[in-house]
Specification:
Layout lengths: L8 H12 L27 E5 L6 H12 L5 E5 L4 H13 L7 E5 L3 H6 L18 H4 L3 E2 L2 E2 L2 E7 L1 E5 H6 L9 H12 L8 E4 L6 H13 L16 H15 L12 H9 L3 E6 L3 H5 L12 E4 L12 E8 L6 H12 L1 H11 L2 E2 L8 H6 L3 H10 L9 H16 L5 H16 L2
Parallel strand pairs: 1-2, 1-3, 8-9
Antiparallel strand pairs: 3-11, 4-5, 6-11, 6-12, 7-9, 7-10
Length: 436
Protein backbone atom coordinates (compact mmCIF):
# COMPACT_ATOMS: atom_id res chain seq x y z
CA UNK A 1 0.00 0.00 0.00
CA UNK A 2 1.14 3.57 -0.66
CA UNK A 3 -0.02 6.96 0.56
CA UNK A 4 -2.88 8.13 -1.66
CA UNK A 5 -2.53 11.72 -2.89
CA UNK A 6 -6.24 12.50 -3.13
CA UNK A 7 -7.43 16.08 -3.51
CA UNK A 8 -8.58 17.48 -0.19
CA UNK A 9 -6.90 14.84 1.97
CA UNK A 10 -4.32 17.29 3.31
CA UNK A 11 -7.01 19.68 4.46
CA UNK A 12 -9.07 16.87 5.92
CA UNK A 13 -6.14 15.52 7.87
CA UNK A 14 -5.31 18.95 9.20
CA UNK A 15 -8.82 19.26 10.59
CA UNK A 16 -8.68 15.71 11.91
CA UNK A 17 -5.41 16.21 13.75
CA UNK A 18 -6.60 19.49 15.18
CA UNK A 19 -9.62 17.68 16.56
CA UNK A 20 -7.45 14.90 17.94
CA UNK A 21 -5.47 17.42 19.92
CA UNK A 22 -8.62 18.61 21.73
CA UNK A 23 -9.50 15.38 23.53
CA UNK A 24 -9.53 14.75 27.24
CA UNK A 25 -12.64 15.95 29.08
CA UNK A 26 -14.81 13.66 31.17
CA UNK A 27 -18.00 14.70 29.42
CA UNK A 28 -16.70 14.04 25.92
CA UNK A 29 -17.84 17.48 24.69
CA UNK A 30 -15.01 18.36 22.33
CA UNK A 31 -14.21 18.76 18.68
CA UNK A 32 -14.72 15.50 16.84
CA UNK A 33 -17.24 14.15 19.34
CA UNK A 34 -20.07 12.20 17.84
CA UNK A 35 -23.07 10.19 18.87
CA UNK A 36 -21.00 7.53 20.57
CA UNK A 37 -22.95 4.39 21.34
CA UNK A 38 -23.05 2.97 24.84
CA UNK A 39 -22.41 -0.66 25.69
CA UNK A 40 -26.10 -1.53 25.50
CA UNK A 41 -26.86 0.32 22.29
CA UNK A 42 -25.16 -1.77 19.61
CA UNK A 43 -27.90 -2.12 17.05
CA UNK A 44 -28.15 -2.59 13.31
CA UNK A 45 -27.39 -5.56 11.11
CA UNK A 46 -25.98 -5.73 7.61
CA UNK A 47 -22.67 -5.33 5.73
CA UNK A 48 -19.59 -4.16 7.64
CA UNK A 49 -16.06 -3.04 6.85
CA UNK A 50 -12.89 -4.06 8.70
CA UNK A 51 -10.32 -1.27 8.46
CA UNK A 52 -6.74 -2.39 8.96
CA UNK A 53 -3.14 -1.90 8.01
CA UNK A 54 -1.65 -4.04 5.26
CA UNK A 55 -2.07 -7.79 5.83
CA UNK A 56 1.01 -9.40 4.31
CA UNK A 57 0.05 -12.91 5.34
CA UNK A 58 -3.24 -13.05 3.46
CA UNK A 59 -4.79 -14.85 6.42
CA UNK A 60 -7.02 -11.97 7.47
CA UNK A 61 -8.92 -12.34 4.21
CA UNK A 62 -9.30 -16.09 4.83
CA UNK A 63 -10.84 -15.39 8.23
CA UNK A 64 -13.18 -12.80 6.73
CA UNK A 65 -14.13 -15.29 4.01
CA UNK A 66 -15.09 -17.79 6.72
CA UNK A 67 -17.30 -15.18 8.38
CA UNK A 68 -18.91 -14.27 5.07
CA UNK A 69 -19.69 -17.88 4.26
CA UNK A 70 -21.67 -18.16 7.50
CA UNK A 71 -23.26 -14.69 7.33
CA UNK A 72 -24.54 -14.06 3.79
CA UNK A 73 -26.57 -10.99 4.82
CA UNK A 74 -23.80 -9.49 6.96
CA UNK A 75 -20.88 -9.57 4.56
CA UNK A 76 -17.58 -8.08 5.74
CA UNK A 77 -14.96 -6.52 3.52
CA UNK A 78 -11.43 -5.39 4.34
CA UNK A 79 -10.31 -1.82 3.74
CA UNK A 80 -6.51 -1.78 3.79
CA UNK A 81 -4.69 1.34 4.91
CA UNK A 82 -0.98 2.21 4.46
CA UNK A 83 1.81 0.26 6.16
CA UNK A 84 2.92 3.12 8.39
CA UNK A 85 0.90 3.28 11.67
CA UNK A 86 0.93 7.08 11.70
CA UNK A 87 -0.82 7.10 8.31
CA UNK A 88 -3.35 4.49 9.45
CA UNK A 89 -4.20 6.52 12.53
CA UNK A 90 -4.62 9.73 10.53
CA UNK A 91 -7.02 8.12 8.07
CA UNK A 92 -9.09 6.63 10.89
CA UNK A 93 -9.22 10.04 12.61
CA UNK A 94 -10.27 11.69 9.38
CA UNK A 95 -13.12 9.21 9.05
CA UNK A 96 -14.19 9.84 12.66
CA UNK A 97 -14.07 13.63 12.57
CA UNK A 98 -16.26 13.66 9.47
CA UNK A 99 -18.69 11.27 11.20
CA UNK A 100 -18.45 8.93 8.25
CA UNK A 101 -20.04 5.50 8.48
CA UNK A 102 -17.60 4.07 5.92
CA UNK A 103 -15.58 2.32 8.64
CA UNK A 104 -17.22 -0.22 10.94
CA UNK A 105 -14.58 -2.27 12.77
CA UNK A 106 -11.25 -0.55 13.41
CA UNK A 107 -8.05 -2.56 13.82
CA UNK A 108 -6.36 -0.25 16.34
CA UNK A 109 -2.81 -0.16 17.60
CA UNK A 110 -3.02 -0.81 21.35
CA UNK A 111 -1.83 2.70 22.24
CA UNK A 112 -4.65 4.42 20.35
CA UNK A 113 -7.48 3.29 22.65
CA UNK A 114 -7.29 6.24 25.06
CA UNK A 115 -7.26 8.85 22.30
CA UNK A 116 -10.11 7.30 20.31
CA UNK A 117 -12.26 6.57 23.36
CA UNK A 118 -11.70 10.01 24.94
CA UNK A 119 -12.83 11.68 21.73
CA UNK A 120 -15.93 9.45 21.64
CA UNK A 121 -14.99 7.95 18.30
CA UNK A 122 -15.65 4.41 19.56
CA UNK A 123 -18.72 2.53 20.72
CA UNK A 124 -18.33 1.03 24.17
CA UNK A 125 -18.25 -2.76 24.08
CA UNK A 126 -20.39 -4.89 26.42
CA UNK A 127 -17.96 -6.65 28.78
CA UNK A 128 -20.56 -9.27 29.67
CA UNK A 129 -20.65 -10.48 26.08
CA UNK A 130 -16.90 -10.66 25.52
CA UNK A 131 -14.83 -13.25 27.34
CA UNK A 132 -11.79 -11.23 28.36
CA UNK A 133 -11.08 -13.61 31.23
CA UNK A 134 -9.38 -16.03 28.84
CA UNK A 135 -6.91 -13.40 27.66
CA UNK A 136 -3.47 -12.47 28.91
CA UNK A 137 -4.17 -9.77 31.54
CA UNK A 138 -1.63 -7.38 30.01
CA UNK A 139 -3.60 -7.36 26.76
CA UNK A 140 -6.97 -6.62 28.35
CA UNK A 141 -5.85 -3.29 29.79
CA UNK A 142 -4.91 -2.08 26.31
CA UNK A 143 -8.56 -2.19 25.27
CA UNK A 144 -9.86 -0.27 28.29
CA UNK A 145 -10.29 3.42 28.98
CA UNK A 146 -11.28 4.58 32.47
CA UNK A 147 -12.45 1.10 33.40
CA UNK A 148 -14.68 0.62 30.36
CA UNK A 149 -14.01 -1.71 27.45
CA UNK A 150 -13.72 -0.01 24.05
CA UNK A 151 -11.59 -2.50 22.10
CA UNK A 152 -11.19 -6.28 22.09
CA UNK A 153 -7.58 -7.54 22.02
CA UNK A 154 -7.09 -9.76 18.96
CA UNK A 155 -3.30 -9.97 18.66
CA UNK A 156 -0.58 -9.10 21.09
CA UNK A 157 3.05 -8.26 20.51
CA UNK A 158 6.32 -7.78 22.28
CA UNK A 159 9.72 -6.87 20.96
CA UNK A 160 12.11 -9.80 20.58
CA UNK A 161 15.76 -10.15 19.61
CA UNK A 162 16.16 -12.19 16.43
CA UNK A 163 19.73 -13.48 16.15
CA UNK A 164 21.79 -15.57 13.74
CA UNK A 165 22.54 -18.86 15.47
CA UNK A 166 24.81 -20.04 12.63
CA UNK A 167 27.15 -17.05 12.87
CA UNK A 168 27.25 -17.06 16.66
CA UNK A 169 28.07 -20.77 16.64
CA UNK A 170 30.98 -20.21 14.26
CA UNK A 171 32.26 -17.60 16.70
CA UNK A 172 32.04 -20.06 19.58
CA UNK A 173 28.95 -18.49 21.15
CA UNK A 174 26.10 -20.80 22.15
CA UNK A 175 23.51 -18.43 23.59
CA UNK A 176 21.94 -15.08 22.94
CA UNK A 177 23.31 -11.98 24.68
CA UNK A 178 21.41 -10.67 27.70
CA UNK A 179 23.12 -7.27 27.95
CA UNK A 180 24.07 -4.53 25.52
CA UNK A 181 27.77 -5.09 26.27
CA UNK A 182 27.46 -8.82 25.53
CA UNK A 183 25.72 -8.05 22.25
CA UNK A 184 28.53 -5.73 21.14
CA UNK A 185 31.16 -8.28 22.22
CA UNK A 186 29.42 -11.06 20.28
CA UNK A 187 29.22 -8.81 17.27
CA UNK A 188 32.95 -8.09 17.35
CA UNK A 189 33.69 -11.82 17.38
CA UNK A 190 31.40 -12.50 14.44
CA UNK A 191 32.73 -9.55 12.44
CA UNK A 192 36.22 -11.03 12.80
CA UNK A 193 35.09 -14.13 10.88
CA UNK A 194 35.15 -14.38 7.08
CA UNK A 195 31.41 -15.15 7.27
CA UNK A 196 30.86 -11.93 9.20
CA UNK A 197 32.01 -9.65 6.41
CA UNK A 198 29.21 -7.42 5.22
CA UNK A 199 26.95 -8.29 8.14
CA UNK A 200 25.78 -5.38 10.30
CA UNK A 201 25.70 -5.86 14.01
CA UNK A 202 22.30 -4.65 15.13
CA UNK A 203 19.14 -2.98 13.94
CA UNK A 204 16.09 -1.60 15.65
CA UNK A 205 13.61 0.68 13.93
CA UNK A 206 14.90 4.27 14.12
CA UNK A 207 13.39 5.84 11.01
CA UNK A 208 11.08 8.77 11.74
CA UNK A 209 8.01 6.57 12.18
CA UNK A 210 6.05 5.04 15.04
CA UNK A 211 8.77 2.40 15.23
CA UNK A 212 11.16 5.06 16.55
CA UNK A 213 8.83 5.74 19.48
CA UNK A 214 8.87 2.01 20.19
CA UNK A 215 12.66 1.80 20.02
CA UNK A 216 13.10 4.88 22.20
CA UNK A 217 10.65 3.56 24.79
CA UNK A 218 12.37 0.17 24.90
CA UNK A 219 15.84 1.68 25.30
CA UNK A 220 14.74 4.12 28.00
CA UNK A 221 12.61 1.56 29.86
CA UNK A 222 15.43 -1.00 29.68
CA UNK A 223 17.73 1.53 31.35
CA UNK A 224 15.23 1.96 34.17
CA UNK A 225 13.60 5.16 32.93
CA UNK A 226 10.23 6.17 31.53
CA UNK A 227 8.99 8.65 28.95
CA UNK A 228 5.76 9.36 30.82
CA UNK A 229 5.45 8.09 34.39
CA UNK A 230 2.55 6.28 36.04
CA UNK A 231 0.91 9.60 36.94
CA UNK A 232 1.02 10.73 33.32
CA UNK A 233 3.83 13.21 33.83
CA UNK A 234 6.78 13.49 31.40
CA UNK A 235 9.96 12.01 32.86
CA UNK A 236 12.73 12.11 30.26
CA UNK A 237 14.96 14.46 32.24
CA UNK A 238 16.61 11.61 34.13
CA UNK A 239 19.96 9.79 33.98
CA UNK A 240 18.09 6.61 33.04
CA UNK A 241 16.42 8.26 30.05
CA UNK A 242 19.80 9.66 29.01
CA UNK A 243 21.36 6.17 29.23
CA UNK A 244 18.65 4.75 27.00
CA UNK A 245 18.99 7.46 24.37
CA UNK A 246 22.79 7.21 24.50
CA UNK A 247 22.53 3.50 23.67
CA UNK A 248 20.76 4.27 20.41
CA UNK A 249 22.89 7.30 19.55
CA UNK A 250 26.16 5.48 20.19
CA UNK A 251 25.01 2.41 18.28
CA UNK A 252 24.85 4.53 15.14
CA UNK A 253 27.87 6.69 16.00
CA UNK A 254 30.09 3.65 16.60
CA UNK A 255 28.91 1.79 13.51
CA UNK A 256 27.13 -0.94 15.46
CA UNK A 257 23.91 0.03 13.71
CA UNK A 258 24.07 1.10 10.04
CA UNK A 259 23.24 4.74 9.32
CA UNK A 260 20.87 3.44 6.66
CA UNK A 261 18.63 2.45 9.58
CA UNK A 262 17.57 6.09 9.81
CA UNK A 263 15.68 5.69 6.54
CA UNK A 264 14.24 2.19 7.04
CA UNK A 265 10.82 1.26 8.37
CA UNK A 266 9.96 -2.06 9.99
CA UNK A 267 9.58 -3.85 6.70
CA UNK A 268 12.92 -2.48 5.52
CA UNK A 269 14.56 -4.00 8.56
CA UNK A 270 12.81 -7.30 7.97
CA UNK A 271 14.14 -7.44 4.44
CA UNK A 272 17.65 -6.72 5.72
CA UNK A 273 17.45 -9.59 8.20
CA UNK A 274 16.01 -12.03 5.68
CA UNK A 275 18.75 -11.09 3.24
CA UNK A 276 21.34 -12.19 5.80
CA UNK A 277 22.65 -8.67 6.42
CA UNK A 278 22.00 -8.50 10.17
CA UNK A 279 23.38 -10.41 13.13
CA UNK A 280 20.93 -9.07 15.72
CA UNK A 281 17.53 -7.60 14.91
CA UNK A 282 14.95 -6.22 17.31
CA UNK A 283 11.62 -7.14 15.70
CA UNK A 284 8.04 -8.25 16.36
CA UNK A 285 7.07 -11.96 16.30
CA UNK A 286 5.43 -11.72 12.86
CA UNK A 287 8.90 -11.90 11.31
CA UNK A 288 9.41 -15.49 12.48
CA UNK A 289 7.35 -17.22 9.79
CA UNK A 290 8.54 -14.90 7.04
CA UNK A 291 12.22 -15.37 7.91
CA UNK A 292 11.75 -19.14 8.07
CA UNK A 293 10.07 -19.37 4.66
CA UNK A 294 11.48 -22.17 2.53
CA UNK A 295 10.47 -20.64 -0.82
CA UNK A 296 13.79 -18.93 -1.38
CA UNK A 297 12.67 -15.53 -0.06
CA UNK A 298 14.81 -15.82 3.06
CA UNK A 299 18.53 -16.55 3.30
CA UNK A 300 18.32 -17.15 7.04
CA UNK A 301 15.64 -19.86 7.19
CA UNK A 302 16.61 -22.32 9.90
CA UNK A 303 19.61 -20.19 10.87
CA UNK A 304 18.16 -17.95 13.56
CA UNK A 305 16.41 -17.97 16.92
CA UNK A 306 14.73 -15.41 19.15
CA UNK A 307 15.40 -14.23 22.69
CA UNK A 308 14.39 -11.40 25.03
CA UNK A 309 15.82 -8.04 24.06
CA UNK A 310 18.97 -7.17 26.03
CA UNK A 311 19.37 -4.24 28.40
CA UNK A 312 22.27 -2.56 30.19
CA UNK A 313 22.40 -5.03 33.09
CA UNK A 314 20.32 -7.97 31.89
CA UNK A 315 17.21 -8.61 29.78
CA UNK A 316 15.60 -5.36 28.69
CA UNK A 317 12.04 -4.06 28.92
CA UNK A 318 10.27 -4.88 25.67
CA UNK A 319 7.45 -2.77 24.33
CA UNK A 320 3.90 -4.08 24.54
CA UNK A 321 2.36 -4.02 21.10
CA UNK A 322 -0.58 -5.61 19.41
CA UNK A 323 -3.89 -4.76 17.81
CA UNK A 324 -7.42 -4.54 19.12
CA UNK A 325 -10.75 -4.50 17.30
CA UNK A 326 -13.08 -1.61 18.07
CA UNK A 327 -16.39 -0.41 16.63
CA UNK A 328 -16.68 3.06 15.15
CA UNK A 329 -19.21 5.22 16.96
CA UNK A 330 -20.51 6.29 13.55
CA UNK A 331 -20.98 2.84 12.02
CA UNK A 332 -24.47 1.67 11.05
CA UNK A 333 -24.42 -2.06 11.70
CA UNK A 334 -22.95 -2.24 15.20
CA UNK A 335 -24.72 -5.46 16.19
CA UNK A 336 -23.17 -7.25 13.22
CA UNK A 337 -19.83 -5.68 14.08
CA UNK A 338 -19.98 -7.03 17.63
CA UNK A 339 -20.71 -10.54 16.41
CA UNK A 340 -17.87 -10.22 13.91
CA UNK A 341 -15.46 -9.27 16.70
CA UNK A 342 -16.62 -12.26 18.76
CA UNK A 343 -15.99 -14.50 15.75
CA UNK A 344 -12.49 -13.13 15.11
CA UNK A 345 -11.56 -13.25 18.80
CA UNK A 346 -12.63 -16.87 19.28
CA UNK A 347 -9.86 -19.20 20.45
CA UNK A 348 -10.14 -21.34 17.29
CA UNK A 349 -9.70 -18.32 15.06
CA UNK A 350 -6.82 -16.98 17.13
CA UNK A 351 -5.04 -20.33 17.00
CA UNK A 352 -5.49 -20.66 13.24
CA UNK A 353 -4.26 -17.12 12.72
CA UNK A 354 -1.23 -17.62 14.95
CA UNK A 355 -0.26 -20.84 13.17
CA UNK A 356 -0.62 -19.14 9.79
CA UNK A 357 1.12 -15.86 10.59
CA UNK A 358 3.22 -16.17 13.81
CA UNK A 359 1.29 -13.19 15.16
CA UNK A 360 1.05 -13.42 18.93
CA UNK A 361 -2.42 -14.41 20.17
CA UNK A 362 -4.11 -12.86 23.20
CA UNK A 363 -5.70 -16.09 24.50
CA UNK A 364 -3.49 -17.28 27.37
CA UNK A 365 -4.06 -21.02 26.85
CA UNK A 366 -2.55 -20.89 23.36
CA UNK A 367 0.89 -20.27 24.81
CA UNK A 368 0.91 -23.82 26.20
CA UNK A 369 -1.01 -25.44 23.34
CA UNK A 370 1.04 -28.41 22.00
CA UNK A 371 0.42 -27.53 18.34
CA UNK A 372 1.54 -23.98 18.94
CA UNK A 373 4.64 -24.95 20.91
CA UNK A 374 5.65 -27.44 18.22
CA UNK A 375 5.66 -24.77 15.53
CA UNK A 376 6.83 -21.89 17.71
CA UNK A 377 9.17 -23.15 20.44
CA UNK A 378 9.83 -19.55 21.48
CA UNK A 379 6.26 -19.08 22.80
CA UNK A 380 7.23 -19.33 26.50
CA UNK A 381 9.80 -16.58 25.89
CA UNK A 382 7.19 -14.50 24.12
CA UNK A 383 4.59 -14.99 26.85
CA UNK A 384 7.04 -13.84 29.50
CA UNK A 385 8.02 -10.88 27.35
CA UNK A 386 4.37 -9.84 26.96
CA UNK A 387 3.69 -10.23 30.66
CA UNK A 388 6.69 -8.04 31.52
CA UNK A 389 6.37 -5.62 28.62
CA UNK A 390 5.86 -1.90 29.09
CA UNK A 391 3.58 0.33 27.07
CA UNK A 392 4.38 3.41 25.10
CA UNK A 393 2.91 6.54 26.73
CA UNK A 394 -0.81 6.06 27.39
CA UNK A 395 -2.11 9.57 26.74
CA UNK A 396 -5.14 11.14 25.11
CA UNK A 397 -3.08 13.29 22.74
CA UNK A 398 -1.08 10.30 21.59
CA UNK A 399 -0.53 11.52 18.04
CA UNK A 400 1.10 14.73 19.23
CA UNK A 401 3.13 12.93 21.88
CA UNK A 402 4.55 10.32 19.54
CA UNK A 403 5.37 13.03 16.97
CA UNK A 404 7.30 14.94 19.64
CA UNK A 405 9.22 11.80 20.65
CA UNK A 406 10.08 10.96 17.07
CA UNK A 407 11.25 14.48 16.31
CA UNK A 408 13.53 14.89 19.31
CA UNK A 409 15.00 11.38 19.24
CA UNK A 410 15.54 11.43 15.48
CA UNK A 411 17.46 14.70 15.73
CA UNK A 412 19.72 13.13 18.37
CA UNK A 413 20.30 9.99 16.33
CA UNK A 414 21.15 12.01 13.23
CA UNK A 415 23.63 14.19 15.11
CA UNK A 416 21.55 17.34 14.69
CA UNK A 417 20.98 17.74 18.44
CA UNK A 418 23.05 16.59 21.44
CA UNK A 419 21.25 13.90 23.49
CA UNK A 420 21.05 16.13 26.59
CA UNK A 421 19.39 18.95 24.67
CA UNK A 422 17.12 16.57 22.80
CA UNK A 423 15.77 15.25 26.11
CA UNK A 424 15.44 18.73 27.59
CA UNK A 425 13.46 19.85 24.55
CA UNK A 426 11.34 16.70 24.66
CA UNK A 427 10.55 17.18 28.35
CA UNK A 428 9.27 20.67 27.58
CA UNK A 429 7.16 19.52 24.62
CA UNK A 430 5.63 16.62 26.54
CA UNK A 431 4.83 18.82 29.53
CA UNK A 432 2.76 21.09 27.29
CA UNK A 433 1.01 18.14 25.66
CA UNK A 434 0.10 16.31 28.88
CA UNK A 435 -0.90 19.28 31.06
CA UNK A 436 -4.71 19.38 31.44
Amino acid sequence: MRRTPLAGVAAGLALALAAAGCGGGDDGKKSGSGNAAGAGQLTGRGPITLVSGKDRSGNMQKMVDAWNAAHPSEQAKIVELPDEPNDQRQQMIQNATTRSDAYTVLNLDVVWTAEFAANRWLAELPKAQLDTGKLLPATVTTGEYRGRLFAMPLTSDSGLLFYRTDLLKKAGIDQAPTTWAEMWSDCDKVKALPEGKGVDCFLTEVGKTEGLTVSAAEAINSAGGTIVDAEGKPSVGTPQAKAGLDFLVNAIKDGRMPKAALTLDGEGGRRQFQAGKLLFHRQWPYQYDLANADDGSSKVAGKFAVAPIPGPNGPGAANLGGHNYAISAFAKNKASALDFIKFMADVKQQKANALATSQAPTVASLYTDPDMIKKYPFLPTLQKAIENAKSRPVVVKYGDVTAAIQGSVYDALGGKTAPDKALTDLQSKLTQLTTP
